[in-house]
Predict the 3D structure of the following.
Amino acid sequence: MSAPLVELAGIAKGFGQGEARVQALTDIHLSVSGGEVVGLRGPSGSGKSTLLNVIACILEPDAGVMRLAGETVWEGGWRIKDLRALRRTRIGFIFQFHNLLPFLDATDNVALAMTLAGTPLAEARRRARALLDHLDVGRRAHAMPAKLSGGEAQRVAIARALANRPAIILADEPTAALDSERARVVMALLRQVAREQGVAVLVVTHDEKIFDRFDRMVSLRDGRIEADQRTCAPA
Amino acid sequence: MNLALRDIRHKLGRFLLTCAGLALLLGVALAMVGIYRGVVEEALALSRALRAELWVVEGGTRGPFAEASRIPGDTREAVARLAGVREAGSVTFQTVEARVAGTAAASAAGAFRDETGRERIGASLRLQLVGFELDRPGGPPATVAGRPPGGARREMVLDRSARLPVGAVVEIAGLRFTVVGLTARTVSSGGDPLAWIALRDAQEIQFRLNPPAARRAQAAGGAAPSQDTVNAVIARLDPAADAARLAEELRRWKHLAALTAAEQEEVLTRSVVERARRQLGLFTVVLLLVSGVIVALIVYMLTMDKLREIATLKLIGAPDRTIVALVMQQALLMGAASFALATALVLSGKDAFPRRVALGPEEVAGVGLVVFAICLLASLLGVRAALRIDPAKALGG
């Protein structure tokens, strides 16, 4: 494990005002290091999605300090002007339903993320194909998302998340739409890229069949961290 | 990587179907612009066909196209003697309901078909008759078929929009005329084909179609109205002559008024077809506004249809310009494709319209620019919606 890439200290977030105010997150302290795969679980309304949105810089916290990839991102206000550029270059996203753009083939879905970061299209496509090959879905490089199986689509989504060599990967229920076997394969891939590229991976999940696939499991309840336990994930 | 084009290609059928629907709407708007221009051009067609530089009409009137104008037949000689007038000619104008009587041979055989193959014997035909004097101003422009008028009585040069061939026989007020030549694009402000006949024939028809009251007065021993009246005298001027000065001079004559060619065109466009012109103009504006609203709704729906994709793009860090380009380019491409289809449809079908659809490069380019502006403005609704999409939607939150 390397230095922490996600560091949250005393993060709080509430919605609404007065009596209608709901405190979604309270005094969250969380640290995820490079190469680490951390699970985030909790019942509905526990604050998982809010926490993910805060780390994704699409929701502004009310208090605390947030450092991503060694940079202070929020401390009494946003410290970085271009949050989209931060997401583009430092954070990779994986979604429950892959969210691949339906009008681009697998290669271009991955290449798009690179071109948004300024990589020339030809170079982006070359690197996208190499990434797809690496994730064992290279033979489907020209398939449209609608023609991909759930497992293949999620691999392409992982390739897209890795496109700009991010420091952090945020995954929202990445295995919820997959059967057990494919879910295990996806988790193995996430572990592989975390190890190979030193990426901090934070996965929101309800999927009990993969609970043993994390280095740590953080449990949330009523907006607070209830437990932060190291698991016996396979190496 | 152009996302707009890729999205269109992905859903090409739906895009084309949308464009086809929009093309029909834009086609109607484009046709209205053409009809609007056509009405103006048709209104000016008669005046321009006669190539008159000065119109001498009944005093206190604005000429035969705006109201009744009747002046003595010898006015032409007085006008012709004016310094600066090169030549002058008497003309009459009259809208008549004619009857197709076939050709001399076909009439006897009882069968006659026009150039489109339709049986026309007995068919009624609305014409704007122009009575003129041979070799004087007022005659038809160059014929596109047959020959120019030879000066003989009972001959007619007719606009080809009447769809009658050279040699056809047309009956008006019991008089039979043989079509000896055809002209093109010479119609009245009402869209009726122009028919040139000898002045004497026209005066005879005017007499035959005289109101019954006048005939009753004549039968009761009243004086017979003079047949030698015309509706206007038109003059062509020496190159150095000043039309406005001559018109001013003529206005000082008793019982006469005069208009320059520009004034006559003003009367035709601002008075004779003013209501039709404004009605068409207003309808065109309404159609373009409706098109704008529909484009805006389509673009908005297309944008909402891509809600998750746009949220994903925002989440993975796509800048606003990428999202704006996606929405705007699609709106503009849709507008361009629809407009191209609309133009092709209207240009290929414009001859089927009963009134002239005058669409030149200027009109097409003008409407194209308006459509471009409409699409640009209409896409703002979609752009606004796209920019308000919360990237958290991509995370399902």
Summary: The radius of gyration of chain A is 17 Å.
